[in-house]
Amino acid sequence: MKLHMHPASITSRPVRLLIAEKGLDVDEEVVDLFTGAHHQEPYVSFNPNRLVPVLEDGDLKLTESSAILKYLADKFDMAEYPKDLKARAKVNEIMDWFNSNFYRDWGYNLCYPQLFPHHVRPSEEGQRIAVEWGRDRSKFWMQVLNDYWLGDGRPWLAGSSPTIADYFAGSIVALGDMVRFDFSAYPNVAAWLANVKAMPHWGEVSAALDGFAASLSDKDFVAA
User: What is the pTM of this model?
Assistant: First the structure.
């Protein structure tokens, strides 16, 4: 198997973390996002979405982090993706919620426009409106995460043990560290995220992102 990825990619991180934590034999091929390799051949033909990660396993090619996590968990019979129908449905629900609701405002309105030049809106007013919208909506989603998904004090999103939902969501929520988001108003989220970050391989998998965040230490961010 081969994972096409970039070590500073938010969406590559959950897959790389699962691979590292489970000791899977997966080769990595870096797609250099900073030189625009994902917008050049041969990658454009390989993945017209021009995004990472992509997993290759023989004649199978998968392009979405959520799908890759589910595939790997099934292929290697991991407890992190339960076989019980109802337990699996809850994991799927949480991952869909993050993808369809939380990530939209958190990533693409609040964080990414402040971090990556290609996400900056074409006018100052457009940028301001996008980021302020993302800030306000992220507060709402963060409160839902704190009070509903984690409101009973559970250590992991789907119960007492980690699932691929935690890998997926933890990598997304930790994006807030890069814009210096204050998690203290959301104690259940902060405690859960600390559990994710305590995974043995979190530090090595997140090293490139941590380095990028450090390079932005002088930048002011709008954050809830």
Answer: 0.95
Count of residues for the chain? Answer: 224
Q: In whole angstroms, what is the distance from residue 149 CA to residue 80 CA?
A: 17
Residues 16 and 89 in one domain: no
- Residues contacting residue 61 through CB under 8 Å, at least 6 positions apart: 47, 54, 55
CATH of the domain at 104: 1.20.1050.10
Residue 12 maps to a domain = yes
> What's the CA gap between 107 and 112, in Å, rounded?
6
β-bridge mates for residue 57, sequence order: 60
Q: What letter does residue 179 receive in the DSSP assignment?
A: G
**Edge-to-edge strand ranges of the sheet holding 54-57:** 27-30, 2-5, 54-57, 60-62
Closest among 160, 174, 176, 159 to 205, alpha carbons compared: 174
pLDDT tens digits, one per residue of 151-201: 999 999 999 999 999 999 999 999 999 999 999 999 999 999 999 999 999
Structure tokens at 50: 């021009």
